[in-house]
Write a structure and sequence with these properties.
alpha+beta, 20% helix, elongated
Amino acid sequence: MRFIIIILLLAFVSCNKKDIPKNGRLKIIPKYCKYDNIISIPAPKFKLFKKEENNSKNKLITESEIRNDNFTISNLEYGKYYVEYITIYNQKNFIDFEINKSTLKEVKICIDDLDYNENKNVLMVDELKNGETLIVEFFHQGCFDTYDKPVQLYITKKNGKFTAKYYNRKYNLSNPQIKILREFEIELRSNHSAGCSSIDTYRLFNKESRRAYEVSDGSCHEWNGFENLIKMIISKK
């Protein structure tokens, strides 16, 4: 009789284990990973896919926008997933993760992520010769705060060394700061959104060769390229 009771108890426990749902919850958190931009965190569009083990085609779970801090997705089966989202440079990015617990899974997506090694453009900062000066010009036009005139940053190369002049003050640039300057130009040449009533206009101009490159950014301060550049190569000195 004792053995029968034990067998029945084991069968009961086994059935209960099978009835436990293996579902989790997901919270996707958009954030700036390179820049400290608290002015405007956009609501990125994303697609959530579940990787199917026995199927070459992954399953689309949902497609949406993250419009508030409480955005979560529930009832997700245990397994491997990935998020496809659009960065502020209008490029697709992917994050792989796994859901294997019933507790809330948080996945952070870097909305300012950019693979600088994929750049195919010839950068004006790289073409700068000894004795030449590159002017980085920034002009903001908005409904209530249009600039009187463009703000200018001068980058000069002499004897293989770079110096910056900003509001009549000169700064020697280190190799890490030159790297930041190159990344700024790569970001500038990436795709930027339009549709905002405020427009930021960027212009690169080589004083000697007269070569110029101009971009208008209507992303409502999602990038803030010039401000971030000044913070990283001037303000931190």
